[in-house]
């Protein structure tokens, strides 16, 4: 090949590449995730009441737990770390956490100080979201009541107590006529598994009528539904903890299916009480207000006086299942999972994301993350796959997201209306 021919070939390739570059259609700009606020439920814990009390109440001997009542188990801590790791990978890929190494100020964590399990949850989430990085979770002193997670005062005013109990009593009266069939089946199943003759022998009767009471500064249900809800949650936790199936339910067959059947009682009781707006707003208005401000790109002050900067892209609040329920009520959200019968089960994490669209508009998307029952039981690594929750209160578009201005106006108005009642 002559030098001249070789030069012509090289020159023609250069021209072709240049022409191809000129003719190529540039990729359209993509939406950019700017900030996410996560609210995480703690991991697998033991029942909050001593097992001896549960034994005495049900006339059954329940499984012993390796930790004190209401504490995270080591199994639960490992599962929670798996969730944090999956969330960290997801949000690194989304660009709001550093792809490699440690940055400065990318993550802020605030934990409910009321319980050791939530303090541990904040610590585990911080270090699994950004492994090896020096993140210091914030909280009030251990054992302190934190109004961020529950601003309902222990000595609620007579007017507030009257409002909550009036609404709860009316809701309960309506429920007596309209209770879903799967909830009634759950109560009947609790009776069959625990004490089949309980309603006639003076032992627990899981189908007895319910009533609303005010106890220790908060509303509660007492009766068959609340008892069914309690045992449903305890059996789910036993399964998630990895206890032998033969030991769950005292030999009752197919306990994995039974747990699914029982859980509607727990979910329904939560909807009646925890998601009651008259209760959810007094409990959750501070946290909800912080979320609205944070997704709008503002800085917020934590109860200890520290600030979450306007430039912090990832914020985590470590709370309880009741925290998720109250936020669901305030923001008008609802969700369920095919592989986890409790929508607020261990490690479930609610997110509020702020996106900048190619046209410059900012939009807010609500998402939910979870681990399936068998993933919890087997300590299986998970991939964080967010499910979008439509923000129906603020005129969402087809993908469920709201314009940031609509989001802030809608929920600021809701919160202001509560404040001025």
TrEMBL record:
This is Periplasmic AppA protein. The keyword Signal applies. The keyword Signal applies. It comes from the Bacteria. Residues 1-18 form the signal peptide. It comes from Komagataeibacter europaeus (Gluconacetobacter europaeus). Pfam families: His_Phos_2. SUPFAM superfamilies: Phosphoglycerate mutase-like (SSF53254). Keywords: Signal.
């Amino acid at each position: 090949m002559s030098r001249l021919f070789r030069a012509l070939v090289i020159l023609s390739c250069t021209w072709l590449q240049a022409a191809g570059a000129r003719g190529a259609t540039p990729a359209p700009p993509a939406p950019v995730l700017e900030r996410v606020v996560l609210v995480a439920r703690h991991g697998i814990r033991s029942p909050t009441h001593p097992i001896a009390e549960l034994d005495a109440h049900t006339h059954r001997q329940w499984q012993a737990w390796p930790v004190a009542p209401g504490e995270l188990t080591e199994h639960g801590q490992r599962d929670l770390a798996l969730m944090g790791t999956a969330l960290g990978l997801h949000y690194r890929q989304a660009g709001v956490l550093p792809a490699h190494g440690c940055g400065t100020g990318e993550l802020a964590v605030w934990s409910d100080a009321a319980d050791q399990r939530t303090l541990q949850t904040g610590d585990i989430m911080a270090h699994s979201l950004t492994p090896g990085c020096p993140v210091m979770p914030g909280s009030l002193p251990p054992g302190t009541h934190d109004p961020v997670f529950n601003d309902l005062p222990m000595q609620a005013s007579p007017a507030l107590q009257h409002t909550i109990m009036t609404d709860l009593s009316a809701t309960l009266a309506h429920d007596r006529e309209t209770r879903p069939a799967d909830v009634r089946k759950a109560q009947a199943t609790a009776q069959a598994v625990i004490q089949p003759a309980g309603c006639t022998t003076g032992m627990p009767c899981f189908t007895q009528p319910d009533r609303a009471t005010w106890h220790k500064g908060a509303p509660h249900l007492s009766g068959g539904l609340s008892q069914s809800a309690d045992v449903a949650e305890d059996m789910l936790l036993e399964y998630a903890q990895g206890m032998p199936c033969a030991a769950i339910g005292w030999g009752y067959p197919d306990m994995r299916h039974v747990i699914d059947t029982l859980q509607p009682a727990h979910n329904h009781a939560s909807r009646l009480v925890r998601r009651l707006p008259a209760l959810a707003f007094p409990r959750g208005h501070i946290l909800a207000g912080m979320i609205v401000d944070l997704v709008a790109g503002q800085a917020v002050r934590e109860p200890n006086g520290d600030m979450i900067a306007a430039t912090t892209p990832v914020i985590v609040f470590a709370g309880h299942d009741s925290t998720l329920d109250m936020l669901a009520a305030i923001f008008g959200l609802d969700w369920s999972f095919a592989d986890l019968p409790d929508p607020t089960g261990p490690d479930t994490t609610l997110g509020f994301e702020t996106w900048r669209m190619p046209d410059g508009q900012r939009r807010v998307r609500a998402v939910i993350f979870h681990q399936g029952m068998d993933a919890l039981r087997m300590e299986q690594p998970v991939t964080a796959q967010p499910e979008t929750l439509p923000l129906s209160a603020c005129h969402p578009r087809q993908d469920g997201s709201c314009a940031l201005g609509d989001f802030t106006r809608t929920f600021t108005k809701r919160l202001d209306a509560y404040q001025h009642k």
